UniProtKB/TrEMBL annotation:
This is Uncharacterized protein.
Amino acid sequence: MDYHIKGLQVKELKRKYIAEHGITARQFNSLLKNLTARLASVRESLSFREQDLLGRIG
């Protein structure tokens, strides 16, 4: 979330999360990729929802 919301650098976050949560770099990369894909899906869904609502209103 820090990467997507706060715009922090991946290098900084990776070091921080590995140290704080005891995960491997591979696990961090997997989590980041999964979260990125999930957020893209939500954004796309919101876009379709917005178009649908605007079509119903207009």
